[in-house]
């Protein structure tokens, strides 16, 4: 990948420039981790990354610290940063929590949604569809945006934050789940039916469909892990 464009700032704006670069590095690294381009067995070489991206180590360290907070990487004493390995146990825990919180939250969201909220949910669905067709690296983020858009209208900030956090932790598993042939088509149909129920303000159907969607993904992941 070519280096990031260097950003110039006025005196006193150095902190803003570093934070902006750190945000861009975070997005690059997150996509590489989610799509499996960075192996779990090798340490993340900060010097190599800084040279590749054409940046200093300051924004890189900020990005790595954020990735660790998001649960995507771990820091090992005297060994550096490593990508956290996925596991069946973690998938079970993440998706079990989603099942407890997300279906009911989306049902509440559909009842409280304004026309603006409905337009945002449609746009999020369309963006997810485009990503599925063109860029697998964007699918996880667009999937998160779609699912969160169903919850946000209820105005429950803590619930929305919990759902978004669980969606972030789900992202690598979502990508792994979609890899077998035919999974993207099934996901599209499930999302379309879910959106239709949500737009119709059918809370019971929204909750039922979202629960089935999450349970189906988890069952597929369990089979994938069992198959090795």
TrEMBL record:
One of its GO terms (molecular function) is DNA binding. PANTHER family: GLUCONATE OPERON TRANSCRIPTIONAL REPRESSOR, TRANSCRIPTIONAL REGULATOR, GNTR FAMILY. InterPro entries: GntR_C, TF_FadR/GntR_C, Tscrpt_reg_HTH_GntR, WH-like_DNA-bd_sf, WH_DNA-bd_sf. Pfam families: FCD, GntR. Keywords: DNA-binding, Transcription, Transcription regulation. It comes from the Bacteria. Residues 19-86 form the HTH gntR-type domain. Gene3D superfamilies: GntR ligand-binding domain-like, Winged helix-like DNA-binding domain superfamily/Winged helix DNA-binding domain. It comes from Gimibacter soli. This is GntR family transcriptional regulator. SUPFAM superfamilies: GntR ligand-binding domain-like, Winged helix' DNA-binding domain.
């Amino acid at each position: 990948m070519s280096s990031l464009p260097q950003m110039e700032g006025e005196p006193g704006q150095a902190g803003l420039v570093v934070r902006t670069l750190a945000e861009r590095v975070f997005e690059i690294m997150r996509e590489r981790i989610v799509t499996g381009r960075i192996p779990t067995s090798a340490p993340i070489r900060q010097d190599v990354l800084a040279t590749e991206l054409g940046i200093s180590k300051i924004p890189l360290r900020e990005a790595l610290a954020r990735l660790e907070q998001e649960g995507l990487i771990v820091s090992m004493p005297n060994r550096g940063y490593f990508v956290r390995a996925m596991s069946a146990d973690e998938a079970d825990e993440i998706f079990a929590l989603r099942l407890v919180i997300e279906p009911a939250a989306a049902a509440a969201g559909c009842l409280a949604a304004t026309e603006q909220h409905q337009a945002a949910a449609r746009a999020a669905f369309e963006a997810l569809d485009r990503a599925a067709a063109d860029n697998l690296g964007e699918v996880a983020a667009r999937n998160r945006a779609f699912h969160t858009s169903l919850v946000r209208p209820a105005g429950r900030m803590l619930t929305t934050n919990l759902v978004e956090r669980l969606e972030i932790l789900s992202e690598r598993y979502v990508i792994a789940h979609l890899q077998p042939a035919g999974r993207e088509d099934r996901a599209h149909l499930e999302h379309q039916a879910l959106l239709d129920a949500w737009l119709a303000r059918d809370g019971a159907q929204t909750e039922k469909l979202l629960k089935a969607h999450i349970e189906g993904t988890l069952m597929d992941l369990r089979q994938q892990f069992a198959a090795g």
